[in-house]
C-alpha cells in the first residue's frame, strides 16, 4: 500500500536526501517548515539532518508523536518506527540544542514530548535496529548527566543556565539502568533538560529501590504505573505505597503476579484489601487495571466496588475468580464501559457460562479487545460463543489460544469472525486434532510444541483462505505459542534471563546448604 505524498513532502524529501547540503542550508529555512523536514528526514533515516533540525529547533514545543503521526502532507503514521538511528539523533540533538549557543534561532523550546512513540514487533526502518523504551530511558538519563557535568565546566556559556525544557517520557527502569536514572531524577532541578515521567514501568528491582525511585518521579504527574515480574510486591507493600504516595492523575495500574493471595488471608489481610480498594477509589482518573496471576477468589467486589470511575480495561487473567466475582463484574457499572477484557485461565463454560455472556452483552457496544486464553472453550461451545460475540461490532482483537478446539470448529468460528467489521487481530489455538490423542488441557510448556506441524500449517492456510474469500485481508491471524509479543520483555530479556538464573542458583545453594545440615 502506497501512501500519497504532497508536493511539499516530496520537495522536503529531496531537500534532506542530500545531508551535507541540507545541514548547511538550515539557517535559511522558515520555522514552519521544520516539522515537515523532520518527518521527511525520519522517513529517510537521515540521522545527521534529524540531529541538526532538533539542535536548531525554532518552535515552542517538540511533540514526537504528532511530528511522526499522520499529516496532510504525508498520511502515513511513523510513530511506530522506533528506529535507533533516528531516535539517537533526536536525543543527542536535544542535548546539543542546550549546548549550542551559536544557533541563529532564538531558544524558544519549552516542552519535548517523547511519549507518542509506539514499540511494535515489526520494524520497517532500513537499519532494523530499534531503540525501545528501556534504551530511551537509559540514553536520556545519560545525556542529562553529561549536561550536568558541562554546567560545572569553566567554559560553560552563561546562557545555558537560562534554558529549562520539560521532557515528557515513559520511563522503564530495571536494576541495570537504575543508578543512572536515579541520578538524573535527583538532579532534575539543576539540569536544563527536566525529565517529566508520565508513565513508569519497573522490573527486576528490589522493593526498597522501587519505593525510592517512584518518589523521585513526581507521582503527581504519573498517568500509568506498571510494576511487573521481578518486583516482589505483596498486598501489604501495595497498601504502604498507596498510603504514602498520592497518584491524582493515574489512569492505568499494572500489578505483578501474586500481589494478592486470598488463600492465605487473615482478618488483617481482609482489612488491608478493604484499605487498598478505598485508596484506589480515590484515584478518580483510574480506568485501566491489570492484576493477572493473583488469587482473588470472592474478593473482586471488595476491591472494585469503591471505584468511582468505570474501568475501560480490566485484566484478571488467572485470578481464580468464582461465580460471585463474575456476577459482580456482569452487574457492575464497569460492564458497560469495558473496552478491553482479559479473563484467561478461567474455566468459563463450566463455572459461569450465563454470567459471562451477561457480562459480554453489557460491554458489547464498546468492547475492542477480548482475551479468553486457556478457558476450556470446546467445540460444543462455539455456537454459544458466536451468539455472544455477534453484538460486539467494535471488536478489534480476539485472542483465544490454549482452548481445545478442532480444525472444524475453528473454520466455523473464522467464518463468523469475518463478519465483525472492525476486527484486525486474531490469535487462535493449535487445533486439538494436531496434538496426540492423549493430550490434556491446559497444555504444559513441555508438550506445547509436540503437535503435527504440517497439519497445523494446512489448517492455518485454510483459515487464512476463509478470511481471503471474505475480503478480510486486513485481519492478521496467528498462533503465538508462548504468548503475544511484549516489547518491554523483548528488550530486557537478557537481563531478566540472567536474573532468573541467579535466583535459581541461589535457591539451589540454599537447598544444598539445608540438605548438608540435615545430613
Question: In words, what does this structure look like?
Answer:
This protein is α/β, with parallel strands linked by helices. It folds into 2 domains: 7-131, no CATH class; 237-483, Leucine-rich repeat, LRR (right-handed beta-alpha superhelix) (Alpha-Beta Horseshoe), CATH 3.80.10. It is built from 19 helices and 13 strands. It has helices spanning 7-17, 19-25, 34-43, 47-55, 64-68, 84-99, 133-151, 178-186, 207-216, 235-244, 267-281, 300-304, 323-331, 348-351, 353-363, 382-389, 407-417, 453-469, 487-518, and strands at 61-63, 111-113, 165-173, 193-202, 224-227, 252-254, 288-290, 313-315, 340-342, 369-371, 397-399, 425-427, 476-478. It has a 13-stranded parallel beta sheet. Strand 11, helix 17 (407-417) and strand 12 (425-427) form a beta-alpha-beta unit. Helix 4 runs parallel beside helix 6, helix 6 runs parallel beside helix 7 (133-151) and helix 17 (407-417) packs parallel to helix 18. The model has no long low-confidence stretch (mean pLDDT 93). Keywords: Leucine-rich repeat, Repeat. InterPro entries: LRR_dom_sf (IPR032675), LRRC14/PRAME (IPR050694). Belongs to the PRAME family. LRRC14 subfamily. This is Leucine-rich repeat-containing protein 14B. One of its GO terms (cellular component) is cytoplasm.
